UniProtKB/TrEMBL annotation:
Its EC number is 4.1.3.4. It comes from the Bacteria. GO terms for biological process: ketone body biosynthetic process; L-leucine catabolic process. Residues 7-274 form the Pyruvate carboxyltransferase domain. Keywords: Lyase, Metal-binding. Pathway: Metabolic intermediate metabolism; (S)-3-hydroxy-3-methylglutaryl-CoA degradation; acetoacetate from (S)-3-hydroxy-3-methylglutaryl-CoA: step 1/1. This is hydroxymethylglutaryl-CoA lyase. It catalyses: (3S)-3-hydroxy-3-methylglutaryl-CoA = acetoacetate + acetyl-CoA. PROSITE patterns: HMG_COA_LYASE, PYR_CT. One of its GO terms (molecular function) is hydroxymethylglutaryl-CoA lyase activity.
Amino acid sequence: MSLPRSVKIVEVGPRDGLQNEKQLVPTAVKVELIERLADAGLQAVEATSFVSSKWVPQMGDNTEVMQNLRRKAGVAYPVLAPNLKGFDAAIEAGATEVAVFGAASEAFSQKNINCSVAESIKRFEPVICAALALDFKVRGYVSCVVGCPYEGAVAPEKVAEVAMRLFDMGCYEVSLGDTVGVGNPASVQRMIEACARHVPMKQLAGHYHDTYGMAIANIYASMELGMRVFDSSVAGLGGCPYAAGASGNVATEDVVYLLNGLGIETGIDMDKLLDAGQFILQHLGREPASKAAKALLAMRAGGCA
Ligand code: HMG
Ligand code: MG
């Protein structure tokens, strides 16, 4: 077992983190959050999603977010695009990387994107083709990789099948989403091993929600298998509108604290990351869900955490 020397973190706070917020967050606040995260050293910041605003009202300002963004060279700003309508709008707004999102569970697929898993794959095909024709990168998500809020446990083979379809269709990376955060190091490793039989490990990413507090352990277990890309959300914001009770993604601050401690490079400036977290939390009137952020902020304030 050897841990990687460097890890890429895909920051999903502005999309996965905010999509569940009931109060509409002003566009200017979203834009400043994205810019602060890029300034903190994140190489990829998922900026918004081009889904129906009837389904997810918080993402209704997707075009304005993309158009007002000051882009930093070398940073990717992927957006979700579930179908050609979303893809066309994303491109029109200036996106150059998109992500399609499917699931390993039929019930979740229906609740989340209103179609079966097989239908979703059919819808993704023209999106991926159109993106690749423009030389744009497409990321693929698989949700419910360990468990589903409606169907319970999900078989690793089912996850592997969807991951393989997305990869074979041209996704450069497949992000494995423990949407409800029920995974533990054993179940997550079993799931990754099944996927890695069909998709090269370096093209797999971990996207772990932290409902049961297992996400950091799951990242460590994933790195033991050779995974080196993880999604996380600043301050641990978020949840999924179609997975009631699920917590946000693992907090970016917690992941960076772990990786710093292990001597694994991320290129992220923890101080600037904490500032970005404080910025959005002050706006939302909330405390950080991240334990590392809480402790580091207490130290900053002169405490003894
Ligand atoms: P639908 O109702 O089946 O779509 O929704 P439709 O094709 O039948 O069209 C119905 C209406 O929606 C039409 O408008 C379309 O124009 C419009 P109307 O004629 O009624 O005025 N429409 C759209 N509008 C804007 N953008 C679009 C779009 N497509 C159709 N792209 C759809 C299908 C996928 C659009 C819908 O189900 C939807 O928007 N779902 C939202 C899903 C979502 O955002 N979920 C959260 C993100 S996924 C996630 O969080 C998981 C992840 O983090 C990984 C993990 O944690 O596991 C990625
Ligand atoms: Mg998610």
